[in-house]
Amino acid sequence: MSKLSQVRQQILDAKKLDAIVILSDFNRRYLSGFTGTSGALIISQQQNILITDFRYIKQATEQATDFEIINRTHDLITEVKQVLLDKGFSIIGFEGHLVSYDTYKSLQDNTITFSSIANEIETIREIKSSAEIDLIKEAAHIVDDTYNYILTVAKAGMTEKEIKALLESKMLHLGADGPSFDTIVASGYRGALPHGVASDKIIEQGDMITLDFGAYYHGYCSDITRTFGIGKPKAQLEEIYNIVLESQQLAINQIKAGMTTQQADALARDYIDKHGYGDAFGHSLGHGIGLDIHEGPLLSKNTNNTLKVNNCVTIEPGIYVEGLGGVRIEDDILITENGCEVFTKCTKDLIIL
């Protein structure tokens, strides 16, 4: 079933809506193929409309071939409202979790009733098509090659920002559109910061370095974490590394479609807890990736959704000890009927440079 058919069946029909308005960049691109940075979609049972401005008319015509293109003559929200009125649509779905209060007020009219479709498009996006899977695989291949390169250039005396610059430059050289999020380089004691973005800290002998980075490739993300050492690390960090690696491999070996996100999280969490570091693993096991770096499903002890074939998610357990450092290991995987396929393939051995 096509994306637009899914929208009509699962949202328009199910919620008895005349039309939906899509304003978010990711959902607009997903449904229309339009990659411009300004525009709105109006989708009804019979019509697909893309509203943009003169800068993007040629691009929209080439990319959004299933849509009627409207060159707006007012600001975007005023134009959307006018089209809704002109078409006589009265019950409208909108992205209630993403639209600001001011935008919502600007769209209102006494002839229109709005109903939130929060996360409905995002739920459809969780199941990846074969074309999307191929793009994510290529994004994963880029980060694999980038990590292998970093292992040849990283050394004591460099700053975390220097590592980041080399890493991101290499991804671009390998064909990435850019980084898929702010690159994390956390060395030594800063490894205890799960999201320790690159700083001016100088890398020292004996530091463990956590790299968490990703590539955009034709709009789709990869997301990988590897931890390695510059010189021999402290014995406790080596112990932590082995616990994290074993917990991650356990989750990869056992995760499959039909399992709940809570059950998936427990695969690694229970192992880490059994080894005495449960309180030091404070985030979820993983999350979906796709057009956005953080999508559903969320693999967490606090969620209870069911994993489905062609969910693409991360598996990223970690242990963080303040004053000592931390370890996280992350792979991108595709959920299959009987297990998973791992996209990120670079070594997870503890590399000591």
TrEMBL record:
The keyword Hydrolase appears for this protein: yes
Highest taxon, organism lineage: Bacteria
PROSITE patterns: PROLINE_PEPTIDASE (PS00491)
Domain Peptidase M24: 135-337
Domain (Creatinase N-terminal) ranges: 9-127
CDD domains named in the record: APP-like (cd01092)
One MF annotation (Gene Ontology) recorded for this entry: metal ion binding
UniProt cross-references to PANTHER family, sorted A to Z: AMINOPEPTIDASE (PTHR46112), AMINOPEPTIDASE YPDF (PTHR46112:SF3)
Protein name: Aminopeptidase P family protein
Organism: Staphylococcus lugdunensis
